[in-house]
Amino acid sequence: MNQDLLLDLQNLTKRFGRLTAVDDMSFAVTRGEVLGFLGPNGSGKTTTMRMVTGFLPPTSGSASVCGHEVTRDPIEVKRRVGYLPEGAPLYGDMTPAELLDFVARVRGFAGPDKARRMEKAIASLMLEEVAHRPIETLSKGFKRRVGIAQAILHDPEVLILDEPTDGLDPNQKHEVRGLLNELAGDKAIVISTHILEEIEALCTRTIVIARGRLVADETPEALLARSAYNGAVRIRIGAEQMADTVSVLTSAKLRFIDKSALNSRASLVVQFEDGDERDLEAVVANALADGNIGAAEIQRERGRLDDVFRSLTAGS
Length: 316
Ligand SMILES: Nc1ncnc2c1ncn2[C@@H]1O[C@H](COP(=O)(O)OP(=O)(O)OP(=O)(O)O)[C@@H](O)[C@H]1O
Ligand SMILES: [Mg+2]
Hints:
The chain is of the alpha/beta class. The protein folds into two domains: 5-225, 3-Layer(aba) Sandwich (Rossmann fold); 233-300, 2-Layer Sandwich (Alpha-Beta Plaits). Helix content is 35%, strand content 28%. It has helices spanning 45-52, 74-80, 96-106, 111-124, 140-152, 170-184, 196-202, 220-225, 242-251, 280-290, 305-312, and strands spanning 5-16, 19-30, 34-38, 60-65, 68-69, 81-84, 158-162, 188-192, 205-210, 213-218, 233-238, 254-262, 265-272, 297-300. The radius of gyration is 24 Å and the shape is elongated. The structure holds adenosine-5'-triphosphate (ATP) and magnesium ion (MG). Residues 45-46, 86, 162 line the site of magnesium ion (MG).
């Protein structure tokens, strides 16, 4: 078996009655990859993650972790997977220290090894100040951090994290992303998220699903390149210059992707009609100069994931 193939889904399917929540999903994740798992609400992300981690039996198909098929070798799979479920951790009446101690013992750790692992998890997620308060009394962000701590306690090769930064403040989001970046090297990490900037900050690859089916599997850069905004130019002008600017850019045979005005400022995003090889920024600057439109700011756009996400999942 390929030692770097850590996660392998083949035709994984889950039906709940007449609803097909996960529909013939196949993909593999190798060591070092951080996979962003995207999809609208109800598209099957959590259901997929629950099947991969052995918490929900598939209707058909298979999921393997480090070569162990989850329904055949659930124990081997659980040993190699860290899972952060959606929502708050179970056992709300325990403190984080008690929960981590419990999880560590269930996983078979004892003595100084157990103590060291607990300490490391508490320190990584900066849980010291809440370690001895009941989990149910903690804020949403701290509950999330407790969930991540229990997922990394046994230093698993595969991490499956269902919306890991949901509810975290910007500082903690940054910390948790840093932690995941550090962990990434020799693991396979799958994170579901609705925060598209997280994909760019963290992921080496993106899978988009809609209605249980895979609709895209590529790098974040390739996904951005699909955006109508990719390589387009944004022009910011005074609102009173809007009509004249639209007129000169239309004469220059540019296509408008977006037009908006807020208070006294207006913003236009333009692109060439397909296949033009000229420098768009220069063409825009020349057109504005010819039309005597001064004080414009011109800026190249990288593309927008939300725009790509919407077009890929339209109708779901
Ligand atoms: N135990 C269940 N019984 C019946 N239907 C279920 C069950 N679990 C999930 N579903 C349905 O399966 C579909 C996929 O749900 P899932 O929770 O996997 O979506 P999701 O992509 O994680 O959504 P979100 O972004 O809101 O977390 C939904 O229509 C959901 O209602
Ligand atoms: Mg979910």
